[in-house]
What does this fold into?
Amino acid sequence: MMAPMRCEDVSTAEFVEFYTAQKGRCLRAAVASGMDPDRAEEAVAEAFARAWSRWRTVRVMESPAAWVVRTAINQNVSWWRQRRREVPSESAADLPVADGPGQVDLVAAIRRLPPRQREVVVLRYLLDLDTHATARSMGVAPGTVSAHLHRALASLREHLTISEGTPS
It folds into this structure.
């Protein structure tokens, strides 16, 4: 029997456990941040590969999952910069329902937010980071996170209330 591969004194099993537990959550966060679902899968896969190569450092971070999502978002930005063109993303109606009824409406509403507000909502609510961890992840002050979050929640509240009141 072969010994498990090790990445700088960290077992493969530990990383596999992290990957298995967080892949879906990171993918939903990437899609909610505005990425096309197919592009999000590629970016998240690349981010997990980078996490593995730096696992000794990433594993001790406050939120390794947030690092993966941030890396996926950065990967997506780099991908777009290389192409310098826009492609229409999927409509909100075509998005898969992740966790239950109403999930598509919420994801669609989050995707309509400006990029920084969208990023704050994804980090705070989809990855469960507190304000300070979100601020560190984004490289901004905690007050900036609070301001973006306040505006984002007001916009989401307005959009979702209007959508709920509209007959189907």
In short: The radius of gyration is 17 Å. DSSP finds eight helices and no strands in the chain. Residues 23 and 44 are 8 Å apart (CA to CA).
